[in-house]
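re: ur question from yesterday

yeah so i grabbed the chain u mentioned. its 167 aa long if i counted rite. heres the sequnce exactly as i have it in my notes:
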Amino acid sequence: MRLTPRAHEIQRVVDILEDPTFESPDQMAKALIKEVADIVQMRDLFVMVHTWESGHKGLNFGPFGSTAEAEAFAKKMSFGGTGRLVPLTSSGIMLANHDGKAGWPGYCYHPDCGHAPWMHAIDGASRGKCHLDTCPCDKFAKDDPTKKKTTRKKAAPKGKAAGINEL
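ran it thru and got these structure tokens back, copy pasting raw so excuse formatting
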């Protein structure tokens, strides 16, 4: 299974690798395996369901990280018969929508919320209070409040507008 690492996933692994509190390599390895499993659980995956032309049972292959990966596998193997791609809805996403996943991109960064955007009421052009009565979130927090927002400096104008004279 091929997965293209996403920036927030890389950062979660780096955080574990740089954590000085692990007492042994075994503890760090266990933490890494659990984190990577959690990351994969937050991905929608695909399987290929195969049947032979004679109608006999076929073989099922997967998971694949994308439809292109599954199709490339099918072409390479050339089993014959019929293959269909079946999406596997992520159990991690389903649980995150129900329980919340604070700190995961796309979910509310409010520390007591973590629910998906669609769980929050529409408030003008943005999202407001969480729909769950048990959730104390009063406004959807789109970005991580602990990260400082950076602003880009405007590039200096070129040519005569920049005060450069022709010689």
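noticed a couple things. Confidence is low (pLDDT under 50) at residues 161-167. also Strands lie at 45-51, 60-64, 82-88, 120-123, 126-130.
anyway ttyl
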